Amino acid sequence: MKITQNGQYPFYRPWDSGLAKQSLQDSWEGEFSILDLQLGSACNAHCRHCDSSCSSLHESANLDINEVVRLLGEMRQSRNYFSPEHQSEPLWCFICGLGEPTEPTENLPKLLELLDRTAEIGVNFALFNNGLYWDEKLNKHLGGGRLSVQVQVMSNQVEKVAHFMGVSKDEANLQLRHREQIYEVAVQQWDHPQAANGTNVCASIVPMRDNLDELPQLFYEAIMHNVYPLLGELEEAGYCTGKLYQQQKLTYTELANFRGWIRNKFDWYYQVPLCPATFGAIHIDNHNHLTVDRCTGAGCHWFDMSNPDPFDLGDFRNYSYREIANLILDYRVEHIEKVRSAQTDYPEMVFGGCGGNARPLLRQYLESYDHWYASQFR
Asked: What distance in Å separates the CA atoms of residue 114 and residue 18, rounded to the nearest whole number?
């Protein structure tokens, strides 16, 4: 079996463990190298497991690109001063919703403008993509390395893809063809010197009752194409609540058995990586508001695997980068003991959600705070 140059299975470059650890540590110093942006809710699919019900929302992509570019420029200046040894490393923009980032009427123009206007600043992008709108221009950005993509992979069967995504069979065929194109970019990069630094393609696989029989094949195919397989558990949010969630969720034992299969087949103790944007990012919504998770102060809420509960810190356009960083840090310090007392309220999960497994994630967060707090008195 072919594996990466460092002797490991592919890991997703935006979720590099070093970036996750460093971004969390730096956040306590009020330094951020990640921006988590939200575009509009426009989407051409109606996925049964969609956590945001995006195709039923009417949220415009009102993100102010001029101000985003201004903020990224300030972040770069601060980063270069804070850690000059990392000047050559990129800043990151994560775009995971509300809707489909490549939707052509509202979201894609914003995405392409961001890609174009942030090249000189040194910004890389990581986005979720349902695979329906993929095109040659996006493929070029992917091949160039500044763009990383987490593509939806729910089934290899046209009928099932159409069922999962709520689209026609023709559109399902298109999704499968686009997925092949994205996988091919990852394959072409396998022998590149950068291969040891991970892959920029991730397969988003949500284990459900209706695709349980395909999970081994989907996982295996991802690895064999130099693609990181993300096994994010089904979230009880958006469209997938109540009866549908109860019908489709897998039991703890079934998920644990699949992780056991991975261990036996690949000698890989698989764990969902910590997404650096969970606590290491500034989150700005599609209305230009700076928000944090109300309970924890996290930039991204989805590790909780339930509907978001954001707390609005105000319009980011009214603040400098330093003021934004201080607003986030103040909120987190104020709520840290609530997080400490609430961490055991989160259920034990086999894989966890997109941001990581909640309990170990919060444990890391609290440990990093304690380390930072102790350093203030040395």
From this structure: 25
Residue 331: which of 341, 343, 320, 339 has the closest Cα? 339
Question: What is the enclosing helix (H) or strand (E) of 151?
Answer: strand 147-152
Structure tokens at 291: 């928000």
As a dihedral over the C-alpha atoms of residue 127, residue 132, residue 133, residue 135, rounded to 10 degrees, the angle is: 90
Give the closest residue to 234 by CA, choosing from 305, 304, 164.
Answer: 305
State how far the Cα of 21 lies from the Cα of 368, in Å rounded to an integer: 9
Whole-number Å distance between alpha carbons of 259 and 334? 38
Q: Is the pTM of this model over 0.70?
A: yes
Quick one: tokens of 290? 């700076």
Residue 305 tokens read as 């695997």
Give the DSSP letter of residue 95: E
Show the CA angle centred on residue 6, arms to residues 15 and 267, nearest 5°: 80
Element containing residue 74 per DSSP (H, E): helix 65-82
The SS3 assignment for 220 reads helix
SS3 290: strand
Give the pLDDT confidence of 14-58 residue by residue, as tens digits.
999 888 899 999 999 999 999 999 999 999 888 888 877 777 778
Q: Whole-angstrom Cα distance, residue 326 to residue 328? A: 5
3-state secondary structure of 291: strand
Distance CA 211, CA 213 (A): 5
DSSP string of 227-276, one letter each residue: -EEEEPPPPSBTTB-HHHHHHHPPPHHHHHHHHHHHHHHHS----PPPPT
pLDDT in tens, 296-334: 999 887 776 667 788 999 999 999 999 999 999 999 999
Q: How confident is the model at residue 1 (pLDDT cuts 50, 70, 90)?
A: very low
H or E segment at 180?
helix 169-188
Burial class (CB in 10 A: 0-12, 13-18, 19+), 177: exposed
Q: Which residue has the tokens 């606590």?
A: 279
**Residue 14 near residue 34, CB atoms below 8 Å:** no
Q: Which residues 6+ apart lie within 8 Å of 4 measured at CB? A: 10, 190, 195, 196, 198, 199, 226
Residues whose CB falls within 8 Å of the CB of residue 318, separated by 6 or more in sequence, listed in order: none
